[in-house]
Amino acid sequence: MSGWGNGAAVTRYDNHGTACAGIIGAIGKGIAGVAPNCKIMPARASTSNGGYNLDWLAAAIEWAWENGADVISNSWGGSSPYTPITNAINNAVTKGRGNKGCVVVVSSGNNNATVSYPASLPNVIAVGAIDRCGIRSGRKDIIPISCDPWPSSGHPGSAYGTALDVVAPGTNIYTTDRQSSAGYHNAPSPIGDYHVFGGTSAACPFVAGVAALVLSVYPNFTGTQVRDIIERTAQKINPSIYSYSVVQGRPNGSWNSQMGHGLVNAYHAVREAQIAACPTQVVNFTNQTVSTNTIITNCAHINVQNVTVTNNKLTIDALGSVTINGPFEVKSGAQLEVK
């Protein structure tokens, strides 16, 4: 949105976006992103000195949803509320994806205080950062001591508070860098093509990648449905340190002010998306004798009753649930597998 090029990295201030993009969608030698088959739409909003222009940011968000973006990942923040940006985000989450709504993901901030704007908006997913010990990144005042502490300059700690939704890895994240001496890591290839990244800027694209995976299961999910799945399936890490509880206004399970709903979980999110996208039909497998290798599959539920497996193997594979009622018998030498 600055008028520079067509999205290609052209200045050293593009290093940050390159690192974030790698976490989402890198594919190739040495690294894989969360959603390596996704498409990236770069939108530059940085100024020539490495800062950002609020009007360019608003224009970038508008451009993204108007041009078909499904997920908009924002590893920036900290300004005062700015009406054009708020309006652009509102448009994205209501009008984007043919009125199904874009998923807008925003880093919570690195200020060791309350979640910064625009992550503080209620219609975005605000993402905080944790370290490899499952502690809020930069937090050094609890036991066990936070692993991989952030540098004290500019990164006092991952932002938290009432607006926080989920957390993701944000310390010492291996990701893409601009090649050779152009990037963060000025070293000979191949080391110079990668970078150890961190902050809530690194955490945010993890969640954006998971949102892309959820939409790959069922593109007709609304943006709100994607958000609900991500929050419901988040992992409650370190419950002995962080107390999760049901909070008014948060319908997607227990929550904590420093962890949100917990650590984003790609596997469980995709699994729940598959179930949610599946018709609620039930497959009944009843009154059967199985004598050859047989596979019964359904994305919802399977009921099994009055079945005898005389030889070979019966495989029952359901994303939802499997109910087995008697009579049911697996003869000696035969096999049963339930997935």
Can I get a quick summary?
With 339 residues, the protein is of the alpha/beta class. The chain has helices at residues 15-25, 54-66, 83-99, 200-217, 223-232, 266-277; strands at residues 71-74, 103-107, 125-130, 166-169, 173-176, 194-197, 282-290, 294-298, 301-309, 313-318, 321-330, 335-338.
Describe this structure in words.
The protein is of the alpha/beta class and 339 residues long. The chain has six helices and twelve strands. The chain has a four-stranded parallel β-sheet with strand order 1-2-3-4, with helices on both faces. Strands 7-9-11 form a three-stranded parallel β-sheet, with no helix packed on it. It has a three-stranded parallel β-sheet with strand order 8-10-12, with no helix packed on it. Helix 3 links the parallel strand 1 and strand 2. Helix 4 runs parallel beside helix 6 (266-277). It is elongated, with a radius of gyration of 23 Å.
Mean pLDDT: 88
Q: What portion of residues belong to β-strands?
A: 15-25%
Distance between the termini: 49 Å
Provide the gyration radius in Å.
Answer: 23 Å
Strand order of the largest sheet: 1-2-3-4
In terms of structural class, how would the helical and strand content be classed? Answer: alpha/beta
Helix content: 10-25%
- What's the story with the biggest beta sheet? 4 strands, parallel
Number of helices: 6
- Record field, number of beta strands: 12
The geometry reads as elongated
